[in-house]
Amino acid sequence: MNVISTRQLTKRYGRTVALRNLNLEVHAGEVYGLLGPNGAGKTTTLRLLIDVIRPTSGSITLFGEPMSPRLRGRIGYLPGDLVLYDRLTGADYLRFCGAMRSHTDLGEAVRLAKRLDLDLDREAGELSKGNRQKLGIVQAFGHRPDLVVLDEPASGLDPLAQREFHAYLREYVDGGGTVLFSSHVLSEVEQVADRVGILLAGSLVVQDTVASLKANAVRELTFTFAEDVSAASFSGIPGVRDAVQASGTEVRCRVSGAVGELVRAAARFPLVNVTSHEPDLEDIFVHYTEERGDDD
Question: What number does CATH give the domain 218-278?
């Protein structure tokens, strides 16, 4: 089942297209990471999904239903530009948010605050950036929503708080919840996301599992031989993007997909060593960004 489904979702501001024909699917019980550089359309997408702004065209379906105000109570949201009332304590702020949602039970919020080492008795104006972010996270999850939408959730969190937050995310999803979050911190997305979408210039250029993206990504293999071997010997091999002569006896190849044909070709020569640079999410992101730049 898809908790989120969009079809040809488009948002324009005058002549500026912030989001273009977005077809996004987020499955129940998964953590979905939305990646993209600044201005890619991540925040616009999240705001459309929670009905803060309305699309120029296209459709949004949540929990199998067209988007409507009635569904808002099933969603938790952390904005990227979180604004707090400085004179309210954390507990007061959570009660205020709960009243707007007709949810008075603060049990889950208090438990999460303790896990994140957040003092709910302090006024928001006294909190550091990291603790303000913790309070925003707590309010997003505090009413036990079915879907949580988070805009750069780890911003300002120290490593210990990040680790605890990521552990809580997994527990929340294992308990039946669904998470969609945006980030430009690639290591965070790789660590916690089940699937990833990459937005560039308002368009979704790829949507897949992290494992599948890495399996099909461009990787680099360096072959060292006992004698001089020309890089031209590897041109035309399926999957090889380019082959560079690093030295007389060393050839560096960039290859996508299976590497069997390349390795067999290298084995025809007196092969001494092979080293492989396995791609991470940063490599994949840069690859798609460069390809998009080439297309433009």
Answer: 3.30.70.1560
